[in-house]
Amino acid sequence: MIVTRYKIIRIILLILFSAKQMFAQNIDFKASNFKADKQGLKQAVKSIKLGDEYLEKGNEAILERMDAVALFENALFYYLQADEFNPDNLELNLKIGNAYLYTNQKYLAFQFLQTAIDMDASEQDATPNIHFYYAMGLQLEGMYEDAISQFRIFKKRQSEKRFKPLADFYKKYIQECESAMELIEKPQKVWIDNIAINSKNDDWSPCLSADGELLIFTSNRENEHLADDFGKYDNEIYFSTLEKRKWTAIEPITTLNTNEDDVSGGLSYDGQRLLIHKVENENADIFESKLNGTKWEVAKRKMGKEGNSVNTIDNETVASYDPKDIKVYYLTDGGYSKNWDIMFSGVMNRERKIWGKGQSAGHEVNTKYHEGSVYLHPDGKTMYFSSQGHNSMGGYDIFVSYIDDLGHWGPAQNLGSPINTPFDDLFYSSTASGKVAYIASNRKGGKGGLDIYKVTYWGSEKPQSLDSEEQLIASIANPIKDKSIAQPIMIEERNLTVFKGKVLDMITKDAIAANITIMDNSNGKEYIRLNSNSSSGKFLISLPSGKNYGIAVSAEGYLFHSENFDIPKGEAYNLVEKNIELMYIDIGSKIALRNVFFDLGKAIVKKDSYSELDRLVDLMKKLPNLKVELSGHTDNTGSEVLNNRLSQKRAEAVVEYLIAKGIDKEKLTAKGYGSATPIDSNETLEGRKRNRRTEFEITGN
């Protein structure tokens, strides 16, 4: 007979607490029990009354489907003072357990709830609500069958009037226990590791660079600001870099941190921009910061102007860029369900900071429960998000959804155990390869509160790993049962190519702040635009499979550089690492136009060459004194005479295009060299491809 894990846990815990049940005794807070310390009793009673005010407000907020972590933490601040005086009171243990259940230290709830239930047994079931909170504690401990039994005892002992406000929670929690029992039977093939940067406080919202070597996160650990009246510090934004597989010393990003809460949201895929959120005038809004060299700019720029903005009169928080950089996904409490929903907004005019009206990510993603975080993977088709809905195991679980050809997000799939637990699991952020991700969780066994965990996929389903290199730059929801139960996710390989490196001056090797434009050569449209870092010259681009891309790199005073990537549909994950060296504009400077195309054996410029040639037009209009030679080159296949003739006609075709665009024909020369000047071996397919090219050389200025 096979005994499942949760049954083993159940047996062990029941044995551990059986002795305590025999001796549990309730000691009331009254003078006859504390004759020797009347002053201590007085202070303890006062602390309980102060705690009661926060607990009552917190429980009312839960019934209204609102977040109330701060209220319960404040209640605990007072209750724990009273507990030091008298730890053997049934009601106080129940209140402490109740409060812990709704904080990021919910793993501490069970010991108090167990003490309370033991005392309640000796008091002959004097506290009806105790079974509800005790069941929640059992659920967190993985004792799902016992939790369901306790929920049913609670329902049986309540009057209809007292049960009604909690009826939906009752159904929801039983559903979670049933989902958990199914999911833990088919665990995912992953390692889950608590990482070194965590503290005893909350560490959360990890934002990971695509190469996995820069981690930006949020923490309310002790800092230079003053703690509040309850000993809590404000949230600040920190970063750490991965060196030799270890995270380096943690440093605050001082330009982003204020005296209030500052929370990281989403890191752009090139590592040059960061979305954060903070509260101003009692309203949470999303801000964007850019990395200028080695310094993040002060986050003063909201996402859009008033009236044309991602931000509204509602609260907007955790956000994520989409891979094409034309949308931002974010959380708002102003969604259609009036709980926290995932929305997106598209940029309409980036220069004028005009954004479209927020739209829902769709009913397959958003539920009648709270959604807690959102992250768009650079493959362009995958969304990871956290939710209290769908088939959650309890609290927030992390789910994945894939977009279809019409732009609709598909059914949510639970990432399963051990990524998800009965605790809160949120803030999935992944490397481009998908092999490594980071999450935040307040599960049992951490260093305190929310901790950041590393998720490493293994086994036959894991994607290829991403090569390492120096880092790129430095609640409870409306409980109405969902109709469908999604299946656990199966890990699939990422179909994208990551192109990374540095843009440098060819002579001095100094870093260049260059503009990088990615074109979809199939339609001549811009796919994305980004910049290399002004201090390091570093850049990173993630290109989903199924397209032919043209990449142009340009900077003031330099000839532009072009690359071409043809990534067939279904192509496996790949990393291309290359430094790009730009030539200063001078006589003799020469570049290959890698995105100028002709049909085989023909000399008619194809339409997907136009964007490349238009960059050449712009350069010559900016520098009207330039004289240039356009040269055609072939490989050595076929007749030398035919190759010379073809290369000459192709060079002339390019010149004709430039003349048609207004360039003075006296500044242009066409020359065909056939196969006479190869730049690579003609013995390989790739070498011959490189030899077939059009070049641009400055002959006068």
CA-atom Rg in angstroms: 31 Å
Strand residue content: 25-35%
Helix content: 10-25%
**Silhouette:** elongated
Number of helices: 12
Number of DSSP strand runs: 37
Name of the CATH superfamily of the largest domain: TolB, C-terminal domain
**What's the pLDDT, averaged over the residues?**
87
Biggest sheet statistics:
5 strands, antiparallel
Counted up, domains total 4
The CATH class label of the largest domain is Mainly Beta
Contiguous low-pLDDT stretches (5 residues minimum) are 17-22, 460-490
What fold name goes in the CATH topology slot of the largest domain? Neuraminidase
CATH architecture field of the largest domain: 6 Propeller
Structural class: alpha+beta
Description of the molecule:
It is elongated, with a radius of gyration of 31 Å. 45% of the residues are buried. Helix 5 (109-122) crosses helix 6. It has 12 helices and 37 strands. It has 4 domains: 5-183, Serine Threonine Protein Phosphatase 5, Tetratricopeptide repeat (Alpha Horseshoe); 190-457, 6 Propeller (Neuraminidase); 495-584, Immunoglobulin-like, CATH 2.60.40.2190; 586-701, 60s Ribosomal Protein L30, Chain: A (2-Layer Sandwich). Strands 2, 3, 4, 5 and 6 form a 5-stranded antiparallel sheet that branches. Strands 7, 8, 9, 10 and 11 form a 5-stranded antiparallel sheet that branches.
Question: How are the SSEs placed, and which strands pair?
Answer:
Elements: H1 5-23, H2 38-63, H3 69-85, H4 90-100, H5 109-122, H6 130-140, H7 144-157, H8 160-163, H9 167-183, E1 190-194, E2 203-208, E3 214-219, E4 236-243, E5 246-247, E6 251-252, E7 262-267, E8 273-280, E9 283-292, E10 295-296, E11 301-302, E12 304-305, E13 308-309, E14 316-321, E15 327-332, E16 341-349, E17 354-355, E18 359-360, E19 371-376, E20 382-387, E21 397-402, E22 413-414, E23 425-430, E24 436-441, E25 451-457, E26 496-505, E27 515-520, E28 525-531, E29 538-544, E30 547-554, E31 561-567, E32 574-577, E33 580-582, E34 590-592, H10 610-622, E35 627-633, H11 640-660, E36 668-672, H12 685-691, E37 693-700
Helix pairs in contact: 1-5, 2-3, 2-4, 3-4, 4-5, 5-6, 6-7, 7-9
